[in-house]
């Protein structure tokens, strides 16, 4: 008998970043039952972590009750990484890669990845650069069409201080011609980033280097509309019907680009009575995730004779 697990695990990425994670699994009669049961790697959003509200915190337990296991990881975006300089978008793919390799080495065979909010953009970037991956599919919850374009539009709307263009100019001056290796990084604050007041609630804080790779016009890998055509594994886009951060068209347009590029397994589901966090409606969100995972594994079983008895 394999007992239920709720275990903290630390994994190192290829560049030696330490990834703290939470493994949550159900009870099984045999180890092979555990390893053939689907498992979802959960990737949190900006400034988040695996105990943050909503999807990162709620979903693991719900999935376990529905027969799906999970590994929630704290990427280098966690714990204010964008403020302290660790949260380099392009390097965070190493964290997801390390989680996938860990599960593969443990013996798990049906691995999926779910990215929430900015985590969805990270997941898309990772998958676009791993065409040989054994990951069965991606669940992209609240995925922005483009992180740089989304921020510029928001800052322009609220007349941020400094403006998007002013930050870009200053970042270029500070970081120089090689931003990734620059030793001159600095923290900066933007007023009126999320609303029309100078209240701390409406402020946003980055370092120039974390902003450059996540939100600047040069942040190509954070422009998901550019990378999504290279994702060839199945994708489920989830978006709250009342999303207060993204526009309704963003998931559909990303799905269209993926399909036009030859991905034959792409779905979009809008979760009723939910804003940016689909777990505001946990039943509808979990039903969409579990139903989709089952459908992908059933399709794989028909094509590759993969056992799906545990889902």
Structure overview:
- The protein folds into 2 domains: 5-146 and 224-304, Rossmann fold (3-Layer(aba) Sandwich); 149-214, no CATH class.
- It is of the alpha/beta class and 311 residues long.
- It has an 8-stranded mixed beta sheet, with helices on both faces.
- The two termini are 18 Å apart.
- It is built from 11 helices and 10 strands.
- The model has no long low-confidence stretch (mean pLDDT 93).
The overall pLDDT average reads 93
Number of domains: 2
Helix content: 25-40%
**pLDDT < 50 stretches:** none
Which CATH architecture of the largest domain would you pick? 3-Layer(aba) Sandwich
What is the gist of this entry?
The protein is α/β, with parallel strands linked by helices. Helix content is 39%, strand content 18%.
Characteristics of this structure?
single chain, 11 helices
